[in-house]
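2024-03-11 09:14:02 INFO receiving multi-entity request
2024-03-11 09:14:02 INFO entity count = two
2024-03-11 09:14:03 INFO echoing inputs for audit
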Amino acid sequence: MAYVAVKGGEQAIGNAHAWLDEARRGDAALPAVSVRQIEEQLSLAVDRVMAEGACHDRSLAALAIKQARGDLIEAAFLLRAYRTTLPRFGASLPLDTGAMRVRRRVSATYKDLPGGQVLGPTFDYTHRLLEFALAADEGEPPVPAPEVPADGATAPRVTGLLAQEGLMADEPPSDAEPGDLTREPLEIPADRPLRLQALARGDEGFLLGLGYSTQRGYGNAHPFVGELRMGEVAVEIAPPELGFAVEIGDILVTECQMVNQFAGSRHEPPQFTRGYGLVFGQGERKAMAMALVDRALRSAELGEETGAPAQDAEFVLYHCDNVEATGFVEHLKLPHYVDFQSELEKLRSLRAAVAAGAEREAAE
Amino acid sequence: MDMGEIIGTTAEDVVARRRWMGVLARASGAEIAARLREAAPLPPHTRLRGPEIGLVMARGRQGGDGAPFNLGEITVTRCTVGLGSAAVGHAYVAGRDARKAELAAVLDAALQDRALRPGLLDAVIEPLATAQAERAARTARKAAATRVDFSTLAVMR
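2024-03-11 09:21:47 INFO inference complete, emitting structure
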């Protein structure tokens, strides 16, 4: 959402944008950073912009990051604006994350599980000490990562292992057409597919704070990371002119299955329930935060106590979109001269009335 | 140009076609063009639609296996071409590479021709598939190298 209400000042705006171009380029004596370099070397920024821009296209996201001078919310905004110029060809078949070719897959609930704990390219276990070797302009490329023979098996879902024992609430099988908040305005109450769409494109920082709040007591969460997996999945569509499904490519996604206690109800025995997170790219923090908030938003349907901020669907869903939020917050800096003039007049008349009353009192 | 028999819609035909369309979708435009230089020249084609860029809404399932939800869109380029009088080739490929989509559509049409197919499978599809399988295998081997081997730790009870 953009607020543009400006007349006059064209010269100033033109000059401001010229300065923006110069500031974006920085010191012209240094080589310009290429979109390909951003795509390859700032790949997690690219992933975040694709997730929050809700549009998977690595090179476009990298271009948006360059144009936005590294402002990732501005970059997501650019991507959202671009997507409105394109026609929608259709929807994919639901991604089969069970068939993911995992680069990383860890479980905090089972040490030994089929498929094993696969760490992948993670920041975990790094010492968080600055590596000054990276400050060198032309470092040697790192030695290729070690390889060992792979067994080629796909890793079964941890939630499936629990479901076999009847300890995990089933997801009812469904192929219902999900609502789409890019087509219809989001209305409360929103069903879980709509909530997941909003969370998947929601701001990582906002969801992280909300997820954190559920752990600290604002919402009664006792979560375990049943499984976190990141890797490539095939995207398939079934165009009517073909009459069968075809793969259009592979994308990298991150999925989090958060396992939570559930005390049971009159209809259901005590069991585990899941909070679910799925995001474009390698976005582990976002996937985990999304899973925590997804579970918190299910509290009402599970008959649990509600009232914490993360359990309030209206609060969460209407405020998690950073492009909408930035539009409304930032519009405050645009001209409000007329609004403010009326505020001024109201305030002056109130003060005049108070002053007149005080004079009357003094005279009596 | 004489065209051979065009494949139909038997289950076997669909499996074969799905495979080459998936291989072409995963290859870059430059890779496809490089392989085509090794193949016999393709018959002339007519563009019937596109290449045009659009979006496909990628869906997930809640909990990984429940009801579908909309995850976010993916840029996709599609193209439809006619080859000779009978074969129509389609391409839907992720990304915005118009040339790649057109080459993929032409190849889809040509590969449906039983006379042209063996040569194109050998020269284009199989080498691309081999390269893709090797890339995937290398990634899998790197992942396997980061698999925790608890047998190296002391037994905990």
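2024-03-11 09:21:48 INFO post-check: The beta strands of chain B are 45-61, 68-83, 87-94.
2024-03-11 09:21:48 INFO post-check: Chain B has four helices and three strands.
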